[in-house]
């Protein structure tokens, strides 16, 4: 006889999916510059790789160094507060993790860079027999 899915798992999945839906519905562009700081990468796929390293337990600095080694150039780095224009908001799901990605055009250089965060796993930590 199958055991019903625990209520905690159902509510966790519902919360995660509602967060993804809200992120997808958020306005993507504003012409007004905002102050941003933190780790940014040059390409969206490089930012995903950075966040995957972070999710695996690396510090931000180590994650940036590892991505930079693979790419062969300084693409991920920490940026001090700078003016940038928000361009895109995207939600990416990869290997069971949900990422909220954002791109900004940095001023005055007018260079697009990506930042983001990960929300957690869509995968259960329980084995099949425990479900």
The largest sheet, given as strand count, sense and whether it forms a barrel, is: 4 strands, antiparallel
What do the pLDDT scores average to?
79
Radius of gyration: 17 Å
Query: Could you give the count of β-strands?
Result: 4
- What is the number of helical segments per DSSP (H or I, 4+ residues)? 3
Biggest β-sheet: strands ordered side by side in the sheet: 1-2-3-4
The helix-and-strand class reads: alpha+beta
Strand content: 35-45%
Q: What's the helix-strand series? A: HEHHEEE
Termini Cα gap:
11 Å
Q: Spans with pLDDT under 50 lasting ≥5 residues?
A: 5-28
Shape verdict: globular
- Level of helix content? 25-40%
Structure description:
With 131 residues, the chain is α+β, with helices and mostly antiparallel strands. It contains three helices and four strands. Strands 1-2-3-4 form a four-stranded antiparallel beta sheet, sandwiched between helices. Strand 3 (97-106) and strand 4 form a beta hairpin. Helix 2 crosses helix 3 (60-71). The longest helix has 19 residues, at 7-25. It is globular and about 35 Å long.
Secondary-structure map:
Elements (H helix, E strand, L loop, with lengths): L6 H19 L8 E7 L3 H12 L4 H12 L5 E18 L2 E10 L4 E11 L10
Antiparallel strand pairs: 1-2, 2-3, 3-4
Keywords:
131 residues, globular, 4-stranded antiparallel sheet, alpha+beta, 3 helices
């Amino acid at each position: 006889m199958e055991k019903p899915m625990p209520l905690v798992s159902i509510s966790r999945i519902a919360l995660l999916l509602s967060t993804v839906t809200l992120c997808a519905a958020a306005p993507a562009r504003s012409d007004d510059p905002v102050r941003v700081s933190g780790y940014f990468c040059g390409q969206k796929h490089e930012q995903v790789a950075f966040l995957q390293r972070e999710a695996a337990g690396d510090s931000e600095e180590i994650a940036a160094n590892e991505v930079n080694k693979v790419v062969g150039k300084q693409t991920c780095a920490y940026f001090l507060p700078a003016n940038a224009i928000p361009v895109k908001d995207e939600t990416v799901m990869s290997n069971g993790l949900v990422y909220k990605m954002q791109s900004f055009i940095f001023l005055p250089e007018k260079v697009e860079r990506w930042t983001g965060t990960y929300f957690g796993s869509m995968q259960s930590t329980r084995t099949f027999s425990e479900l």
